[in-house]
Amino acid sequence: MKSTDQPPAIFIMGPTASGKTDLAIALAEQFPVGIISVDSAQIFRELDIGSAKPDIETLAKYPHKLINIREPSEAYSVGEFIRDAKEEMVSITNAGRVPLLVGGTMLYFKKLLEGMAELPPADAEIRKSILKRADDEGWPVLFDELRRHDPQTASKIHPNHSQRIQRALEVLYITGETLSDQQSKSQGNGIVHEYNIAQIALIPQDRRLLHSRIEERFHQMIIDGFVDEVQLLHFKDDLTEDLPAMRSAGYRQLWQYFDGDICLEEAINKGIFATRQLAKRQLTWLRGWSDLNEIYIDHKNKFIDTQNLCDQVLKILEYSSILPTQVGISYLSSERNP
Questions:
Q1: Do 47 and 112 belong together in one domain?
Q2: CA dihedral sign, ordered 51, 56, 60, 62
Q3: Residue 257 CB neighbours (<10 A)
Q4: How far is the C-alpha of 39 from the C-alpha of 41, rounded, in Å?
Q5: How confident is residue 1, by pLDDT bands cut at 50, 70 and 90?
Q6: pLDDT value, residue 188
Q7: Which domain-ending residue is among 141, 161, 183?
Q8: Among 87-91, 164-168, 291-295, which stretch is predicted with the lowest mean pLDDT?
Q9: Residue 325's pLDDT is what?
Q10: d(CA 184, CA 55)
Q11: For residue 4, is pLDDT > 70?
């Protein structure tokens, strides 16, 4: 068992549809936590059904910080997440509770842990010049330029990801240094040495089972009104498919349906495929993740129930000195809520 004077924190990570939210709520019922969302889609207002955002009743009973903090027309950077998450963690800790960060945006988790270099602020004139070149010459030309000057960054960016191409070139033009060089300069602003963190990942043993759950959940979203949700967003004059909010899995495909590019059935099938690909990327992030406690979410072709997962997490928290010594409570199975 670890011994530390650092304040405790809990990370619940894992692929989409692995049961992270249900587990976080189960923990909140038995343990004094404050929940912080780590989800790049749930930050946006009006992206409710397709982002699997907890419903209004759940959020009223179990508030999640960093949900509904941006309009879908706005951007939200990793740096902003680090700032906001740190502030919420301090606030929760000062209130005598334990920060519980839950979600599937692995880049947010990684940069919060390790920190990131302080990049220069946006330059309106340089950005305008880049966007004009994109209109005149096309993004493939700008991507080729980035690849020549900063192959390391270019290798991590899809050629169609205009926002990231623009930002990488902007950093190059402002500083004369590549984005990869800038990011290699650690500023020591991560929290890995500031908190006693229990990092927990929900892992499927049988990915086919997770894929089935993803498909079932997507169809349930359609029943719950996901198509209508995207239609209302599509009506808005300030939204386009290139905005970060609209690039989320499911939203992009239904947006293409309302643009008339594909039929609804194809949009649904592509949305399910995109969500499965998202899960694959999330699991790739978790391979080799340092100090990770893995919990399997399925056994013998069945999903493990949430209470069982909660019990496993509580044992990990005991081992990590988060429960009971740092919080001042004892966990006894006979005292649990039914």
A1: yes
A2: negative
A3: 21
A4: 6
A5: very low
A6: 59
A7: 183
A8: 164-168
A9: 47
A10: 40
A11: no
The answer to whether residue 294 is domain-embedded is: yes
Domain count, the chain: 2
Query: Distances from the Cα of 86 to the Cαs of 67, 82, 191, 208, in angstroms?
Result: 15, 6, 8, 36
Question: How do residues 22-69 score in pLDDT, each as one tens digit?
Answer: 999 999 999 899 999 999 999 999 999 999 999 999 999 999 999 999
The amino acid present at 133, given as its one-letter code, is R
* Amino acid, single-letter form, for residue 30: Q
289, two tokens = 């993740």
Residues 6+ apart with CB under 8 A from 223: none
pTM of the full structure: 0.81
Alpha helices in the chain (DSSP H): 20-30, 56-61, 78-94, 106-114, 124-137, 139-149, 151-154, 162-175, 179-183, 207-224, 226-235, 251-258, 264-286, 306-319
* Partners of 103 in beta bridges: 38
User: Helix 251-258 and helix 226-235: axis angle, to 10°?
Assistant: 60
> What pLDDT band is residue 266 in, cutting at 50, 70 and 90?
very high
